[in-house]
Amino acid sequence: MTAERTMLVTAHTGRGAAVDSARLVIGQLLDAGLTVRVLRAEAESIACAGVDVMPASEAAVQDAEMMIVLGGDGSLLRAAEIARPAGVPLLGVNLGHVGFLAEAEVEDLADAVDSVVRGRYDVEERMTVEVTARLNGQLLADTWALNEATVEKRERMLEVVAEIDGRPLSRWGCDGVICATPTGSTAYAFSAGGPVVWPEVEAMLLVPISAHALFARPLVVSPRSTLALEIQPATAGAVLWCDGRRRFDLPAGARVEVRRAELPVRLARLHGVEDTGAPFTDRLVAKFDLPVQGWRGRTRP
Q1: Greatest distance between any 2 Cα atoms in the chain
Q2: pTM of this prediction?
Q3: Sheet holding 238-242: strands in order across?
């Protein structure tokens, strides 16, 4: 007897295109005999019969095979908060702009769902970071991030001392400092001038934002390192953001520590999309419309 297959479908219900796409996905999955769940907050907007309505909690993905997310990278980051604890893979369908985390574009939606139904996909794990903030031993924040943890100024310039593996690195007067994963290297860190890091490279990034200092280059450090930022007493406090979703106010004197987390985020990769030999290179070219005219490739003997 074939085991029941369950999918959770979530969408950015503020976008009509996402709602329409969700209905198409749900219909295709139901027609294939799969069980489909939707979140309670989205059920009324999606308005599909034959689905199971679930709360926005880990229960929604309990025993689910996959979570299909229709929207942009922001929607996928929101979905990761539900899927990560249960280890359920995410499949992003891009209805945003760049959409680096998404695996499929909306114009390929039917083929993408067909690949899911047929089980023609693999799962890759993306490194996450755990983030803590303390003041004189008192815990202010205990959270995580897939893309980045950012300490930013609140009013005036941020005065911060950066530390790596228990040793001070430099003091910066800046707008903020980004501690990013390889996945986050194409997000906020990229906009701040950080390097692009291939997803399979295990590393963490430290990227100052508009720093007034001679040495203020983006740094790539070991994934076994611990990054720390100490907010100096002269600073009028700061704000900690994780993935642009979770915010914590930080008083002067607070210390933020960022290290690799044990729990990854799992992303589904469809066959025929990521098995072309240089997948991330192709993704960069497509997302940024990079000029590659004149490329001849390797000369064959």
Answers
A1: 67
A2: 0.92
A3: 219-221, 204-209, 176-180, 148-153, 238-242, 246-250
Tell me 2's DSSP state: P
In sequence order, the β-bridge partners of residue 174 are 158
Rounded to whole angstroms, the Cα distance separating 16 from 12 reads: 8
pLDDT in tens, 163-212: 999 999 999 999 999 999 999 999 999 999 999 999 999 999 999 999 98
d(CA 95, CA 112): 14
Interior angle at CA 196, CA 194 and CA 198, nearest 5? 145
> How many whole angstroms separate alpha carbon 227 and alpha carbon 197?
18
Is residue 29 classed as helix, strand or coil in its secondary structure? helix
- Coil, strand, or helix at residue 241? strand
**DSSP string covering 97-144:** SS-TT-SEEGGGHHHHHHHHHTT-EEEEEE--EEEEEEETTEEEEEEE
Query: Which is the catalytic residue, given 52, 73, 175, 249?
Result: 73
Tokens, residue 169: 């690195």
User: CB within 8 A of 4, min separation 6: which ones?
Assistant: 35
CB 181 within 8 A of CB 128: yes
The identity of residue 45, as a single letter, is: S
- 165 a catalytic residue: no
Taking each continuous run of H as one helix and of E as one strand, the counts in the chain are 6, 20
